[in-house]
Structures are given as C-alpha cells and as structure tokens.
Amino acid sequence: MKKCLLLILITIVSTNIYSQISFEQGYYVDNSGERINCLIKNIDWNNNPTEFEYKLSANSDPETATIESVKEFGIDNVSKYIRSTVNIDRSSEDIERLSLDRNPIFKEETLFLKVLIEGKAGLYGYVNNNLIRYFYNKENSSIEQLVYKSYEKENNEIGKNDRFKNQIWNDLKCSTIKINMVENLEYKKNDLINYFVKYNECTDGAYVNYEEKQQRDFLHISLRPGANISALSIHSVSNSSNTDFGNELTFRFGLETEFIMPFNKNKWAIIVEPTYQYYKAEAEIFTQNVNADYKSIELPVGIRHYFFLNEDSKLFINGSFVFDLSTNNSKINFEYASDLEIKTRNNLAFGLGYKLNDRYSLEFRYQTSREILDKFVYWSSDYQTFSIIFGYTIF
C-alpha cells in the first residue's frame, strides 16, 4: 500500500502537468514607448520580478524580457508592474539585525514596482523575501518610498520610525479624512490600499484598484467523509508475544479548512482537518479474547500543492503532521488480564487527490505507523491507516 502510493506521488511530481502556470493575455511597453500585446507567463510573483517570459502568439516560442528593456508590463485584469528608479531603504526588520540609526538608509535602484492603486494618488508595492516596502506618488510626481523602519534604541528597546504617516497626512489630505485615520494606519498593504482608495474617492479622482481586480477565495471549508482501512498489531516485551488484529474497514468524517496562499497562482495551501475515526477488532492471545476499541479525533495540519490540469480540474498532493486525541474509553480489553488504556503519539500523513470545479474532490491518503500504547513500557503497537476521502466544498 505504502509503496503503491509513493510510486503514484513520484509519477505525478515528475510529470509535466499541462498549464500549471499558463501564459495569459497581457502587454509590455518597451523603452521606445511602444506597447506590444502578448501572452505573459503568469507565475503570480511573490517577489517583485526583474524579468518575465512572454509569447507573441500562442504558437510562438517563449522569450524573456528584462527590466533593462521594458518600462511597464501587465496581465489583463490581474496585475501591472512599472519600472521606476527610486530611493529604497533595505534596512532589516529582523530583531537580530536592527540598525542603530532611526533614519532610512536610502540607495538608488531601478525596480519593477507592483501597481496597487493607480489614480490621482498612486500606491506601489515591492517585496523581496522578508523585505516589504511601499511607495507612492501624487498626480504624476516622482515616486518615493513611504518610510517605515524598526531600529534599536540605546536602551536595547525597539523603536519605530513611522514617518509614512506624516508623508500621507502632508501630501494626501482631504475633507472627509480625519487625522485619527492616519494615526491608526499600519504599514500593511490592506491598510494603505483602503486609505488611497478613500483619498482618490474623496478628491473625485478616477482610480484603479488592482488588488480588487484579482481578489480570490483564500479560504475553503469542505466536508470530508470517507473510509479507513486500518491495521493494528501489539507486542508484549515481557513475553515476546505479538497480536495482530488485522485490517478493518471503518468510517471516518472530517471538516477541512484550507487556506490558499496568496501567491504562485493559488498552487499552495495550508490545510487543517479535524477528523473523527475509530477502529474495533478482536483477536486471541494465549487462549483469551482481546478486543481493541480505539476512537479518536485526529488533527492533521499540513501543506498542499496543486497541479492544474485545466480550468476545471486539478491534482494535488499534501503532507501533514497528525495530532491524535484518543477518547477516554479507548482501550485494549483482555478477557482475563488488565486492560491497556490507549494513549497515542503523533504521526505523519501523505495524500494524493483530484479536485473538480473547486467543489468535489477525491483523495487517497496514507498514514505512517502510529504508536497507540505510549504510556506502557512493556507494550508497543503499530497502527497504520489508508484512507479514501470524498470532499465537498461548502464555502
């Protein structure tokens, strides 16, 4: 069972799945100012790019355009990037690497900035791993950084330079905006977007909110009934006896919450799935009957990766760390000897599945061996489960 699932996973990962990341309708503007309509490879950049792949037609070979040759590029109704030479402060926000200087240390760089709000007041974003910076301009003025910096004070406390609030209040005032709104701003994308939207609306300026255009469902909740094929064996160290309870087919029910990560074309997700499962079986050891009665709530917490087949269907693989909470009445019951209370350890789970129309799913899942007699020194156990899980996304 384990080898079969592993073989399937390796086959899927090593196969070139069609359209995991597709070329989508877009454009770029070259250094001469000419706009070229094309297909751009949309990899849903988490970090701001310095280059991108494009095709002039669906059947042409991919080409690469770089920041040196492109002034602007965009994917229709998804995103837009502009080239700009700006002063950027790359001071670390890592507590172990904080600067002693509260002032930004600017360096002039040419970057592709992501357009968040385009209008009378423009807002732009730049991300490079843990570095996050926001920029702005007003009425086609030069683009400058909104300043926010953590620094170390002389008394080893952490100080905050939030000059971005002064910049916004001085340059982007409007009659419907009160100063307390600026004072409560955080240096976060959603906070800044909401403010720039409010300012543009207040000044009757036309604007485009690119983040609103590409809003996606980042939270899914699914019902997950299914069947478990579970096997249990126990071993006594004191008398070297082994008892195999065999395979049992049982019912399981889970409620999965899936958090889609907001980058890389929705291919990554964090999953949490509280699940009720049980196992009941009988065996015979030394002429006495032994009953296994094991019920628990499993809590797999893991990561899922999608492989898109087309617009309606996709494959996925996931790996989870499984926390197991056995019920108080879970026991190994001996006919003539003392019962063994079941207390479990955690284990791992690996799954392979298919999803249709973002609503229906089927998953095959294998769990590594789980110890269910953790509190006993002279007993050990081996509990393994293979699951077939049906899913229906309700939200």
Please explain how this structure is put together.
This protein is mainly beta. It folds into two domains: 19-213, no CATH class; 219-393, Porin, CATH 2.40.160. 11% of the residues lie in helices and 54% in strands. It has helices spanning 2-14, 164-171, 179-183, 189-202, 210-213, and strands at 23-30, 35-41, 51-55, 63-66, 70-75, 79-89, 106-118, 121-128, 131-138, 144-146, 149-152, 158-161, 208-209, 219-236, 241-260, 268-272, 275-285, 288-308, 313-326, 331-334, 340-341, 347-356, 360-370, 379-393. A hairpin with a 4-residue loop joins strand 18 (288-308) and strand 19. The longest helix has 14 residues, at 189-202. It starts with a helix and ends with a strand. Residues 12-19 have low confidence and may be disordered.
Secondary-structure blueprint:
Blueprint: H1 2-14, E1 23-30, E2 35-41, E3 51-55, E4 63-66, E5 70-75, E6 79-89, E7 106-118, E8 121-128, E9 131-138, E10 144-146, E11 149-152, E12 158-161, H2 164-171, H3 179-183, H4 189-202, E13 208-209, H5 210-213, E14 219-236, E15 241-260, E16 268-272, E17 275-285, E18 288-308, E19 313-326, E20 331-334, E21 340-341, E22 347-356, E23 360-370, E24 379-393
